Amino acid sequence: MSMLIVVLMGVLSIVDGLSTYTATPGGKERNESHVSALFVLGDSSVDCGDNTLFYPLLHGRLSLYPCNGSDATLLPQLLAEKMGFTSIRPFYGQNGSLEEVLGGLNFGSTQATIMNQGRYSHQSLNQQLRQVSETMQLLQLQLSEDTALQFTKSSIFFLSFGKEDYIELFLHNSSGSNQTFQQGAQYFATILVNQMANAARYLYNANARKITCLGILPLGCTPRLAWQLNSTTSAGDYNANGCVEHVNDMIFEYNRLLDEQIDKLNTEFTDAQIVFCDVYNGMMEIINRPRLYGFEDVKRACCGLGLNGAMIGCISVDMACDQASTHVWWDLFNPTQTVNKILADAAWSGQPIADLCRPISIHELASMKV
């Protein structure tokens, strides 16, 4: 009973318009923050495999260690720290208690896709949305309706999807520079973006008012795709940094459409704020001017085997290079923690990379009252 009272007091402080709690267990105050919790949905860009049942048996083309340590190396967790949250618990790592939900949850799953089709459809965007809905229902059952409503409205819902959909598309169409594939990819981007817009509407109807959508990173620069498409891509399709241009063009188009769709949603939902974070242009800024940001290698994976570490992923952290901080890429498809930290700083404050998130920064979103 005493624990329930403590939890409810924490929730009531949110309703009163204060920072979520006075201080976290780690002692960090959440200054100027009006965020009750962070709820994360996504793919390998938000999860290291901890939130995937039987991941070692299902990892397929992925590394067994797609992160150099834990989810704490990834963008949403780094942003959570800036908001004052010490960690965001994986959905499958919690037992459904109210206290755990109040701390925020990571619904993300390494192999999740926007599309429901495929081997891992049970980890799709729609499945994660259903898990969010069940979680919000738990809040309504255990808190008063008004308290649960305010808690949801002042939480940030962070979405990062599409990466796995495109990796599957490119790996299954290695000769994908032909015109038919290019046209199909444009249609594919429209379908994916429409699904993301529907997800934002779903969350809005579930009373979410602070939503962040990440774009897709430049997959044409990832060690695996740059290596795998080498035999089917003309030399002129590679830029000076070894990135496959036609792949990046398709990713850029998806991000452009998503950015446009979010503008429309912000016009439609005037009492909400949806933020688009352009990690594509953020990473291209780093890749094009690596030394400015302290990097020495923009092609080779720090942890992997074969040419540029692109043939076999990180099956043991003992394989990793000595100084991951000098590499842009950690493994086949994932950036290093150092890259993620730069992107997190830029998303939070607009520095050192301006206009990464728009129309406002994540710090402004966190500070916004609803």
Automatic annotation (TrEMBL):
One of its GO terms (biological process) is lipid catabolic process. Gene3D superfamilies: SGNH hydrolase (3.40.50.1110). Keywords: Hydrolase, Lipid degradation, Lipid metabolism, Signal. The keyword Signal applies. One of its GO terms (molecular function) is hydrolase activity, acting on ester bonds. Residues 1-17 form the signal peptide. Belongs to the 'GDSL' lipolytic enzyme family. This is Uncharacterized protein.
